[in-house]
Write a structure and sequence with these properties.
Low-confidence stretches: none
Largest sheet: none
Shape: elongated
Helix content: over 70%
Mean pLDDT: 87
Distance between the termini: 31 Å
């Protein structure tokens, strides 16, 4: 019984009491440049999503007009995927902030 109590007090002494860490904008050099790079990557992602949407719509139309159901279905899938990629890219900041706030409520 005494060994169990010694183990419990040792574990309680090792566990931290209260940790409160939040993101720091000025902790590392280059944070501003990193934000610029992430914004540029988001812009490129949106531009590529629009390009994929245009190409997929052309493939869908070509497949439909040439009576090629395989090509038409590939075009439809491409349209859906490019729209999904644009939604995820555009909403990425909001999604990250939402899950950050959810994570902050867990205790």
């Amino acid at each position: 019984m005494l060994a169990v109590l010694d183990t419990l007090t040792t574990v309680a002494a090792v566990l931290p009491a209260n940790i409160d860490i939040s993101p720091n904008d000025s902790g590392l050099p280059g944070i501003g440049a990193l934000r610029t790079v992430v914004g540029a990557v988001m812009t490129i992602g949106l531009i590529l999503s629009v390009l994929a949407l245009i190409v997929s719509a052309v493939v869908w139309g070509f497949g439909s007009n040439s009576s090629n159901p395989h090509l038409a279905s590939r075009g439809k899938v491409g349209v859906l995927i490019s729209c999904g990629a644009a939604i995820i890219t555009g909403a990425s900041v909001t999604l990250i902030n939402f899950f950050w706030n959810v994570g902050q409520t867990v205790s």
